[in-house]
Amino acid sequence: QVRLVESGGGLVQAGGSLRLSCAASGRTFSIKAMGWYRQAPEKEREFVARVGERGRTSYADSVKGRFTISKNDAKNTWYLQMDSLKPEDTAVYYCSAGYTWYSNDAWGQGTQVTVSS
User: Fold this and answer.
1) Hey, what's the torsion of the CAs at 33, 2, 9, 103, to 10 degrees?
2) Distance between CA atoms of 8 and 26, rounded to whole angstroms?
3) Rg of the chain's alpha carbons, rounded to an integer?
4) Residue 24 φ then ψ, to 5°
5) With 0-12 CB in 10 A as exposed, 13-18 as middle and 19+ as buried, what is 54?
6) Bridge partners of 77?
7) Are 98 and 107 in contact (CB under 8 A)?
8) How many other C-beta atoms can be found within 10 angstroms of the C-beta atom of residue 56?
9) Cα dist. 91→9, 26, 96 in Å?
10) What residues contact residue 46 under an 8 Å CB cut-off, 6+ apart?
């Protein structure tokens, strides 16, 4: 079983930056893909970004060019660098770990990101 803990959320003004971290523990050798999702109030959870064990990345169109996903295998941690933040980026951000590129088999508890205008 994989356990995930996010950190790094907070309040920032529009145009600012934040970096989220997700630390994994447990059966980390099973992880093939790591992702970030977000859920705004009264909206469904949506995909933000994903990185595979060999560095393949994928981004939602809404964050391309502003957000960057990366990972540190030695620390079993992945990151979401968020730049040029907009009020519409306000949401609870969740990290995920998948045993395949397409699956989400573990979730973190979520971290709040609030962008003020």
Assistant:
1) 30
2) 21
3) 13
4) -105, 145
5) exposed
6) 23, 72
7) no
8) 10
9) 10, 27, 16
10) 37, 38, 39, 60
Helices (H), the chain: none
Pairing of the two strands 33-39 and 91-98: antiparallel
Helix (H) or strand (E) holding 52: strand 46-52
Contact between 106 and 96 (Cβ < 8 Å): yes
Q: How do residues 26-85 score in pLDDT, each as one tens digit? A: 999 999 999 999 999 999 999 999 999 999 999 999 999 999 999 999 999 999 999 999
pLDDT of residue 15: 98
Task: Give, as one character, the DSSP assignment of residue 99.
Answer: S
Q: Look up residue 28 and give its DSSP letter.
A: G
75: DSSP letter: G
